[in-house]
Specification:
The protein has one domain: Aldolase class I (TIM Barrel). The protein is about 40% helix and about 15% strand. The chain has ten helices and eight strands. The chain has an eight-stranded parallel barrel, surrounded by six helices. The mean pLDDT is about 95. Phosphoenolpyruvate binds next to strand 8.
Length: about 250
């Protein structure tokens, strides 16, 4: 059985003081965490100070974005190695908010993914998911397969390289209503089958985890806990409150 993982995406919602206060609360809440993996993705600027707070705890650090280049004339960007130097072990790649507002496409996401894997020290969390129009017109399955092909096609993974695929239906993110767990599981099955096609069943199973993201709260989390192809969750809004996030995590990680 794969280790369960819950990832918190703080987006651009917290200033420095709020980030550090929340990090302290999280450290305290999760002091007895033994199994599973909890990953917090603060803003870039808070990462070094949050890292200091998490010292001695089992909580891991992630970033919300990364550059596809390691070094060079990339004004305003942060490289994969810079993230590892700052203490990150995970990084979100291709979040739908970046696809929508920063016009990131899957070609760019593919390059970012390659750069991240090259460091050997960062685990990418690749976001995929359909928008409302695509869902309404029954194109979800096609969209998921296409996004996976574009982002992962042509990659060959080394023994130690792992990738997390986050299925995030865009219309559910920040909406307050998660999709039905059975629908998430169906989408995860499509993802699993596509990974089997791209990499073969052994690599698909050993090197990939699949998580769901989109309006998860302590009230709806139970439905997502025991699904066959769901290894964890990506949580936005509900990760901004330590008590609420703790309840979500406790439902997933026993
Ligand atoms: C997200 O931003 O990836 C996310 C899942 O947000 P929320 O939980 O707020 O829908």
């Amino acid at each position: 059985m794969k280790e369960k993982i819950v990832i918190a995406n703080w987006k651009m919602k917290l200033g420095q003081k709020e980030s550090l206060d929340l990090a302290k609360q999280m450290k305290d809440k999760f002091k007895d965490l033994k199994n599973g993996q909890v990953v917090i993705c603060p803003s870039f600027l808070s990462i070094p100070e949050v890292k200091k707070i998490f010292k001695g705890s089992k909580i891991k650090l992630g970033a919300q974005n990364v550059c596809s280049n390691e070094n060079g004339a990339n004004t305003g960007e942060i490289s994969p190695t810079m993230l590892t130097e700052a203490g990150c072990e995970y990084v979100i790649v291709g979040h739908s908010e970046r696809r929508n507002y920063m016009l990131e496409n899957y070609e760019m996401i593919h390059l970012k993914l390659k750069a991240v894997l090259n460091t050997d020290k960062l685990m990418p969390i690749v976001c995929i998911g359909e928008n409302f129009e695509e869902r309404k017109t029954d194109r979800r399955d096609f969209v998921l397969v296409h996004q996976l092909q574009q982002s992962l096609g042509g990659l060959s993974l080394l023994q130690n390289q792992r990738i997390i695929i986050a299925y995030e239906p865009i219309w559910a993110i920040g909406s307050g209503t998660a999709i039905e767990p059975a629908e998430a599981e169906y989408a995860h099955k499509i993802i699993k089958l596509t990974l089997n096609d791209l990499f073969g069943p052994q690599i698909a199973s050993d090197h990939f985890s699949i998580v769901y993201g989109g309006s998860i709260t302590s009230k709806n989390v139970k439905g997502f806990v025991n699904l066959e192809n769901t290894d964890g969750l990506l949580v936005g809004g509900a990760s901004l409150n330590a008590d609420e996030f703790f309840k979500v995590v406790k439902a997933v990680i026993k």
